[in-house]
Amino acid sequence: MVTVGVDLAAEAVRTAVAWLDWSPGRARLERVEAGAGDDLIVEAVMDAAKAGIDCPLGWPDRFVDFVAAHRAGHVQVPEGQEGRVWRRDLALRVTDQVVYEQTGLTPLSVSADRIGHATMRCAAVLAELARRGRPVDRRGCGVVVEVYPAACLKVWGLPYRGYKRAANLTGLGRLVDRLLEAAPWLDLGGYEPLCRASDDAIDAVISALAARASALGLVTVPVGEQAATEGWIALPTAPLHRLAP
Predict the structure, then answer these.
(1) Which branch of life, at top level (predicted)?
(2) What does the alpha-carbon distance between residue 125 and residue 197 come to, in Å, rounded to a whole number?
(3) What domain range is 76 assigned to?
(4) Domain CATH number, residue 114
(5) Could you tell me what percentage of the chain is helix, strand and coil, using 3-state DSSP and rounding each to the nearest 5?
(6) For the whole model, what pTM was predicted?
C-alpha cells in the first residue's frame, strides 16, 4: 500500500507531496517533493491507495447560500442573532466546529481567511481528478481524504505547535525526533534531512500517515449531509502505533 500526503498551499512554492510505502514491518518514505505543481499532485493521487490533503475540500454551505443571497440583495440576519454568533456558521464548516470541540484547535476559515486561495487551487485539482476518472468524495470515502496535521499531531501526543517557518527549525527537529521515537517502524530514509528543514515536507508526511489511518478506518466518520459538499476532516481515533504495518 502507498499512501500520499499533500501539504497544499495556494502556490507550488509552499506545497509538498510525500509518498509512504507500507510493507511488512515498516513504512518507508519513498519520496518527498517540495514545490509541487498541480500535475504532480494529480499524478500522485491517481497512483495512491489513499491520499490525505491538508486543505479544505469545500466551503461552508451557509456561506455559499449567504453569498448567493447577497448577490441577489436578500441577505437576512437570523432573528435574535448578531455579530459573531450568526457569522460563525458562515466562517466555519461543520467539520471545523467538530475539530474544535474534540481537540481545542480551530482550523483556518476557508471563507474568511487566506486559506481560501489554497481551496480554490484544490477545487481545480479535484476537478482534474474527476476528469481522469477518479471523482472525489469530499466525505473521505474515496481515494482522497481531508486531513489536518496539527490536530493529528495533538491526538497522537506529539508537538503540534512551534515548528513552522525557518525561525523554528529547532522545534521542527524536535518534532521529527518525537515522531521517530513514537513510530520506530517509520523510515524517513534519505529524506530525513529535508523533513528536518521543511515544515511543508513534514506536514506532507503527517498527511500521508493520516491517510493510512483513514484507510484502516481509524478516523472520525462524517456527520450530517453537509459533509458531502463542505468536506470532512478525518481525525485519528487511535494512537499512532495502531498504524504500524
Answers:
(1) Bacteria
(2) 27
(3) 59-92
(4) 3.30.420
(5) 50, 15, 35
(6) 0.95
Q: In a 3-state reduction of DSSP, which class is residue 219?
A: strand
Residue of 220, 221, 222 lying closest to 237 (CA atoms): 220
Cβ–Cβ contacts within 10 Å for residue 126, how many?
23
d(CA 10, CA 20): 24
Q: What residue ranges of the chain have pLDDT lower than 50?
A: none
**What does the alpha-carbon distance between residue 223 and residue 108 come to, in Å, rounded to a whole number?**
20
Same domain, 150 and 208: yes
Report the candidate in 73, 100, 56 with the shortest Cα–Cα distance to residue 227.
Answer: 56
Shared domain check, 136 and 225: yes
Among candidate residues 110, 140, 152, 108, the one with its CA nearest the CA of residue 227: 140
| 233, 99 Cβ separation under 8 angstroms | yes
Query: What is the number of structural domains in the chain?
Result: 2
Co-location of 121 and 86 in the same domain: no
Separation between Cα atoms, residue 171 and residue 42, nearest integer Å: 31
Residues 153 and 114 in one domain: yes
Neighbours of 105 (CB within 10 A): 17
End-of-domain residue from the set 92, 108, 143: 92
25 Rama sector, left if φ>0, alpha if ψ -120 to 50, beta otherwise: left
Same domain (yes/no): 54, 69: no
The β-bridge partners of 3 are 20, 50
* pLDDT, tens only, 100-155: 999 999 999 999 999 999 999 999 999 999 999 999 999 999 999 999 999 999 99
| Polymer length of the chain | 245
